Amino acid sequence: MVTQVSKSSTKKISYRYTAIDYAMLAVVAVVAGVIFYATWFVYEFGKVLGGPIVARLLSYGLWFIGAPLAATLIKKPGSAFLGETLGALVETVIPTIGGVTNLIYGVAQGLASEIGYAVFRYRRFDVLTASLAGALAGIPAVSLDALLFAEIASPQVMLLWYIASIVSGGIYGAVASIAVSRVYRG
Asked: Is the pLDDT higher at 41 or at 5?
């Protein structure tokens, strides 16, 4: 039996961030922070349009977009976490309705998104991985809604909120990866 090893599985992972990586993280943080700020309007529009499920489906993935943007661009361990967390910091400074809780969400969502890349041992930074990272961020988002803002409903409705957040995160994660890949051919 012959075992074939792909190049991507033998490629050495770099943990060292360069000055260019930090500069790209700063740009991602500002872009993500502005997107996060604008997402409050999308969320409110979604609530008016179809209630909390539609609001989460339309908007939550936008709040998770910092992680796949940074990870697809920088392709290093920790970049998803940093992209989401720093974007939340920018959103907090702007300021928005969420205030300091934005940073709590950013840390939790960044950690969840980072798991999406860790599952593949930081060897894949493609659309599938970005979609997974975005989807995973939906779990702490809805959980924090319940813990911090008492947004609690029946188990069936909570399940729909989780599903809407996860689907939204998966879609916007893929969109972020495709956008970065089209803009930056690196």
From this structure: 41
Q: What is the distance between the alpha carbons of residues 53 and 38, in angstroms, rounded to a whole number?
A: 19
Question: Would you call 137 helix, strand, or coil by DSSP?
Answer: coil
Longest dimension (CA), the chain: 60
Please, what is the angle between helix 19-63 and helix 155-183, to 10°? 140
Over the stretch 143-167, which tens digit does the pLDDT of each residue have? 999 999 999 999 999 999 999 999 9
Q: What distance in Å separates the CA atoms of residue 127 and residue 78, rounded to the nearest whole number?
A: 18
Q: What is the pLDDT of residues 51-88, one digit of tens each?
A: 999 999 999 999 999 999 999 999 999 999 999 999 99
Phi/psi of residue 127, nearest 5 degrees: -60, -40
CA 133, CA 114: separation in Å to the nearest integer? Answer: 7
Residue 83, C-beta contacts closer than 8 angstroms, at least 6 positions apart? 25, 28, 29, 32, 66, 67, 68, 69, 70, 71, 74, 110
Per-residue tokens: 183? 């803009």
Spell out the domains of the chain, with CATH numbers in brackets.
19-183 (1.10.1760)
